[in-house]
Here is the input.
Amino acid sequence: TIQLINFTDPSVNKAGSPPAPLPPTYYSYWWPPQSPWDVLVGEFTAEGQSATNVPAGQQMNYARGINSFTQMVQYWYALGFIRDKNSHSAGFPFFVETERNNEIFTYENVPVSEISGNEEDDETTIPVFYIEKKTQVVTERSEKGRMMMEHLEEVGFKEIAVAADRMPLPRSGTRNRR
Here is the structure.
């Protein structure tokens, strides 16, 4: 996620009603550490692309489908590695996301009209990724999905309990993925 940090008054990040970042701000990435914000998707097969809804070379949010702090802790293993696909050449590097566990993610193409209320906007869609909660769906997607779910069931695939009286949300930050 990101946090907008006010660099003239560090004790105040948001002001007004509704609360909004108080300028001047600095756009800071902070979770997960040492990870990119966007990646080039390295899914080069027709089968892989149809399963992920993302063509090779498209820039996508690295943490797509992980939509909360709790999910980041619970599903970190689903994120991919960044590899140079041109490492054996003296040419430019070609860094792409590889080995992402796409089996656990589901996506839906949401028409912009559902957000804007303007029917003319329904030709443009935004892919929304999320964790598939039905393990049977993940199991049926591929052999890898079946093996993953089988292993996770054996080692204690349990949701992280979040107490109802937990700490309040951070005073700044966002889930907006631009």
